[in-house]
Amino acid sequence: MSTLAAVVGIGQTKYTTKREDVSIAGLVREAAARALQDADLGWDDIDAVIVGKAPDMFEGVVMPEIYLTDALGCNGKPMLRVHTAGSVGGSTALVAASHVQSGAFKRVLTVAFEKQSESNAMWALSNPQPFSTHLNAGAGGYFAPIIREYIRRSGAPYDTGIKVAVKDRLHGARNPLAHLQLPNINMQEVEESFMLWDPIRYLESCPSSDGACAMVIASEELADKAARPPAWIRGVAMRSEPTMYAGREEVNPQAGRDCAADVYKQAGITDPRKDLDVAEVYVPFSWYEPMWLENLGFAPEGEGWKLTMEGATSLIDGGDIPWNPSGGVLSSNPIGASGMIRFAEAARQVRGECGEHQVEGAKLALGHAYGGGAQFFAMWVVGAEKG
Amino acid sequence: MSQPDVLHQAFELGFTYTRSTGPVVGRFLTELKKRNIVGIKASDGRVIVPPMEYDPDTAEELGEFVEVGQQGEIVSFAWVREPRAAHPFDRPFAWAMIKLDGADVPMVHCVAAEAESDVATGARVQAVWADEPRGFITDIRCFELV
């Protein structure tokens, strides 16, 4: 039997291309200190620390969690590192939540980060192995054929991805922490940007960012007394499946569908488009918005692109279910942190603290992350009310 | 029945990375370039060399730099009889924990000496600088007995 837990503090760095002024520890520390400040707490108030980041090979620091112990005030406390590729920011938040929901800890600090300017994420993603053909393509090269298959099956119009790329950057221009600030971006500019991995153009891809995100998760008793409105954790779910096996559904992965069904059931959601007010979903390449709209049950299979094209997912167009009002992964992508940013931005929405990118009156929000070859899924639903 | 051949192949993997030192370690290394050694004051008043970014007890951010002496005392040591290629000397030498004057914790560095019997706990040593310091810990080429 799990108990209720809530997000009581959130801290993020300003996402940017290069943070040469700080060490990796200094970057992580900045987000953690801001989360503590937001929660009106000090290092001594934290019972355990849960850290997440992408594979060690990305930055070439082996077991960075050990090197970060003093920067995160972990001396004498339990510390654990979570490791699920690109979804790690989300699953790290879920592990932190479960530490509190289990009743074992009262307040847990959770932090995820990436310093892409000092790393080699592009090539560390697809390293050559003996007896195998070298993919040599990075994430975009891996996902492009899956996107082409989605387009073939759904008959989605050519400019669906372009529309997502513009929409998320216009959202990002309303979020001062977003890396890309492109308030004047338009469809033509995206369409004319060079083709990286057909059908993914340069401006339909996420940037490489430096940044960290942190949250403090507290028990119900402590969250009731929190300094600022808590974001109550109403559902948590993780699912995984192998990258490749005969007959794997790669466009609409079963693990993603199962994960969504589980988290909706816990939160009492039967119609995600209607019941949720906002969603922060891991969309690193534009076309993943329509694909995940279907995978997450916001639209019937083959019709996700219709929501995108109608403006249903646009905050600026007054859509009924804004996706990624923060600008999403397409506007900021410190890989290890990107999933946690989705979870934290969902929490910020129900706390009503998003300013220019606030979805008015948001009470229930989905945070989503995926990783690997779209094989690891992590999701949570947070609410302004306990439920 | 014969065993089937099981294929195997060695392979190498390498990537390039960058590292930023940050304001604390960065300051320490920059000072070495000027032939200065700096530590940092911890919450309990101890001077830690090389400096740490965060207090080991309270986790608070540290920022009060203190210049320490270029001489100090050997707290403990290990004599290396047969140096390897990667070692800083091609003749026998000592790795030592050296507490610099004004510091409260020892720092590891190498000590040049003729014989193991010349090195002792409590012996005084002096930093020897590289001809052209570049902001590396090896700017202190070694310590030698005073």
Oligomer category: heterodimer
Share of helix among residues of chain A? 25-40%
User: What order do the helices and strands of chain A follow?
Assistant: EHEHHEHEHHHHEEEHEHHEHHHEE
If you average the pLDDT of chain B, what whole number results?
A: 95
Strand content of chain A: 15-25%
Spans of chain B of at least 5 consecutive residues whose pLDDT stays below 50 are: none
Shape of chain A: globular
Work out the helix count of chain B.
1
Strand order of the largest sheet of chain B: 4-5-6-8-7
- Total of DSSP H or I helical runs spanning 4+ residues of chain A: 14
In whole angstroms, how far apart are the ends of chain A?
Answer: 17 Å
Mean pLDDT of chain A: 96
Helix content of chain B: under 10%
Q: What order do the helices and strands of chain B follow?
A: HEEEEEEEE
Number of domains of chain B: 1
Question: Structural class per helix/strand content of chain A?
Answer: alpha/beta
Q: What sort of overall outline of chain B do the alpha carbons produce when their principal axes are compared?
A: extended
Radius of gyration of chain B: 20 Å
Task: Tell me the Rg of chain A in angstroms.
Answer: 19 Å
Compact overview of the structure:
The complex is a heterodimer of chains A (387) and B (146). Chain A has 387 residues and is of the alpha/beta class.
Features:
heterodimer; A: 387 residues; alpha/beta; 14 helices; 34% helix; B: 146 residues; mainly beta; five-stranded mixed β-barrel
What does this structure look like?
The complex is a heterodimer of chains A (387) and B (146). Chain A has 387 residues and is an alpha/beta fold. Chain A has helices spanning 24-39, 56-59, 64-67, 88-101, 121-124, 138-154, 160-172, 187-192, 220-223, 254-267, 272-275, 288-295, 304-310, 335-351, and strands spanning 5-12, 48-53, 79-82, 107-115, 195-197, 200-201, 210-219, 231-240, 278-280, 364-371, 376-383. A nine-stranded mixed β-sheet of chain A has the order 3-2-4-7-1-8-11-10-9. A two-stranded antiparallel ribbon of chain A has the order 5-6. In chain A, helix 4 (88-101) crosses helix 14 (335-351) and helix 12 (288-295) crosses helix 13. The two termini of chain A are 17 Å apart. Chain B has one domain (22-145). Chain B is mainly β and 146 residues long. The mean pLDDT of chain B is 95. In chain B, a hairpin with a 5-residue loop joins strand 1 and strand 2 (47-48). Classes of the chains: A alpha/beta (387), B mainly beta (146). Chains A and B meet through helix 1 of A and helix 1 of B.
